[in-house]
Amino acid sequence: MVQTTDNVLIDVQNMKKYFPVTQGVVFQKKVADIKAVDGVSFTIHKGETLGLVGESGCGKTTTGRCILQLYKVTEGDVYFEGENLCTMKSTALRSMRRRMQIIFQDPYGSLNPRMTCGNIIGEPLIVHKMVSNRNEYREQVTELLNIVGLNPYMADRYPHEFSGGQRQRIGVARALAVKPSFIVCDEPVSALDVSIQAQIINLLEELQEQFDLTYLFIAHDLSVVRHISDRIAVMYLGHIVELADRQELYENPLHPYTKALLSAVPIPDPILETTRSRIILIGDVPSPLHPPSGCVFHTRCPIAIDECSAAIPEFRNMGNDHWVACIRV
Amino acid sequence: MGTLLEVNNLKTYFFMQDGVTKAVDGISYDLQEGETLGLVGESGCGKSVSALSVMRLIAWPPGRTVEGEAIFDGEDLLKMDNNEMRRIRGNRMSMVFQEPMTSLNPVLTIGRQLTETLELHLKMDKSAARNRAAELLQMVGIPEAASRLNDYPHQFSGGMRQRVMIAMAISCNPRLIIADEPTTALDVTIQAQILELMKGLCKQLGTALIVITHNLGVVARYADRVNVMYAGKIIERGTAKEIYHNPKHPYTLGLLRSVPRLDEPKKQKLDPIEGIPPDLMNLPPGCSFRPRCHYAIDKCAVEEPLLEPVADSNRHTSACWVAGKLSAKKDT
User: Fold this and answer.
1) Which of B148, B172, B289, B294 is deepest in the core (most CB within 10 A)?
2) Closest C-alpha to A56, from A200, A220, A201, A185
3) B240 and B166 in one domain?
4) What is the CATH number of the domain that holds B22?
């Protein structure tokens, strides 16, 4: 893969994150690993939105947090504009954090209930010493509130006085405060009602245009991801199984898991629904504590053969920048 | 096929310290035998409360069904005393809840929870109930059913627990199952499994089904008819086809336009409904959707529209003064 071209903002190479499982109260010993992310590689270009979909527990959130170094990566490298974040000193990393931000899923849990909305948005400005005096601070907070569609007089209110959608706007404003170039959106609309979801999605799209932002958009809802993304990566049990352009992925899915996922998403159109075929997967996602050997999907795969359980399939480029990890395609 | 359930002018209010919340405010609908009805709306619109009221599961205080009737199989559920209701609930009508994690009792085995209803309603003896329980688990697709009867809920995954809930719901061959957001807590692939299973079982057993959901896609795939709710009222009713292809209420139209569709060809902007749902404690006068409505006219602020048949069909009703002027096509 290309190390650094002008266009690449984030380059993730063979990133792994294992969480140890320990036993014992006093003398803890490691008994196993939960392989949350097990060797993923991808790049994100400047100004693009990369969508990351998968079911709960597949490691999509962990991937996002590892990129931001909120978790220490077990193995592999993450390059941000050519600089390796994984080997960076913590002071240097702190200044890099100004460039990359995150919007969390839960608009209720991610805002400190004892801080006013204005202070929540303004705190990053103080931490990163981006304002010199109170007036400047106030001006910036007011501007941020305006940008995300909140009223400046709301700055003195506390999180509980806002609705879910408004809270998510505060989360967006907080991420924008330090003028980042990269934002990880970790399920930003999953907790919201349908009519409010659309408002936040539109806001994110407008901001991307206005501030030239790059997004990693994590969600389990394939229709939302397809709507907002330029390219989409599909994750299953710690591995990226397919990566392609949004149109390509929908029209020409190659991996059997992607096919099943696409067919499982209902479309709000009863006439169309009667004609769509469905691939119903059998069983549940296996535990990442004991992932299946070889291809992790072979236990649920409708087209698996014996070889699938032997070796981890290579992540191949099928042309047209369509990457897939399956030996059967 | 006859009418199985007829709800007339149902009103359920919550009496709180700072006022009265009209969670369900005069809704009427009917359900035919074996039919699947979708109840759609955003959180807080009263869809769950309306179902719980029919089941008589509203806790007093603070909630109470103050008016209306719910005629199930010729009898008014709301006039029954508690003993009569207890004989019907779980027997002739049952419920599947949203949270498979919390709606099973964690300290009882799956087998005990399944046999309890069988022993109570069908007066089975212990061994017959156990056999039937194993059979039910088999029906909902749980492998090695007989041996899993001794397991506790925490030993099952989310999808499996929802299967157990469904097994409990169908255990007494009910005429009606109410499923309250049955798949919201589940992953997409598991969601598809569960919905196919429910639809299949209902067809096989001839059970009517009310699916409560905020997911418009789920309803499109599985429902025969759809009720759209907003702020405690049904604002549009019709067959699934009519609702999706020819919506006659600005809210339905707005909902359909605001969800991204998997099959949208190219990136286009979503068309969200502006504003937020109203506070049920002080609703605006007239139509409660008016503050968020693009089509509102002066009349909307004064007079509340009633559910009335749309021009060409008497099975499709809408509560909107400008219903006739709406078209599914996007106007600019």
Assistant:
1) B289
2) A220
3) no
4) 3.40.50.300
Give the HSE-up count for residue B308: Cα atoms under 13 Å, Cβ half-sphere: 9
Same domain, B68 and B97: yes
B18 inside 8 A of chain A by CB = no
Q: Which residues of A touch B42 (CB under 8 A)?
A: 193-195
**Which residues between 293 and 332 in chain B have a beta carbon less than 8 angstroms from any beta carbon of chain A?**
none
B237, B124: one domain: no
Q: What is the pLDDT of residues A17-33, one digit of tens each?
A: 999 888 888 888 888 88
Residue B259: its chain A contacts at CB < 8 A?
A: 194, 197-198, 223, 268
Rounded to a whole number of angstroms, the distance from the CA of A277 to the nearest CA of chain B is 12
pLDDT at res. A215: 95
User: Looking at residues A173-186, what average pLDDT do you find?
Assistant: 93
pLDDT of A1 above 60: no
Domain count, chain B: 2
Q: Give chain A's mean pLDDT.
A: 89
Low-confidence residues of chain B, pLDDT below 50?
Answer: 330-332
Q: Which residue of A has its CA nearest to B222?
A: A270
A267–B217 C-beta distance less than 8 A:
yes
One domain, residues B157 and B242: no
Q: Tens digits of per-residue pLDDT, B181-195?
A: 888 777 778 888 888
Residue span of the structural domain in which B294 resides: 230-262+269-325
B275 part of a folded domain: yes
Residue B210 maps to a domain = yes
User: Residue A260 in contact with residue A252, Cβ under 8 Å?
Assistant: no
pLDDT number for residue B332: 37
On chain A, the residues whose CB falls within 8 A of the CB of B278 are none
**A166, A221, A281: residue with CB nearest B189:** A281
Looking at the fold, whether B238 and B164 belong to one and the same domain comes out as: no
Task: Tell whether B332 is covered by a domain.
Answer: no
| A209 contacts: CB under 8 Å, gap ≥ 6 | none
Q: Spell out where chain B has E strands.
A: 3-16, 19-32, 36-40, 63-72, 75-76, 93-96, 176-180, 208-213, 225-230, 233-239, 308-310, 313-318
What's the rounded Cα separation, in Å, for the pair A116 and A114? 7
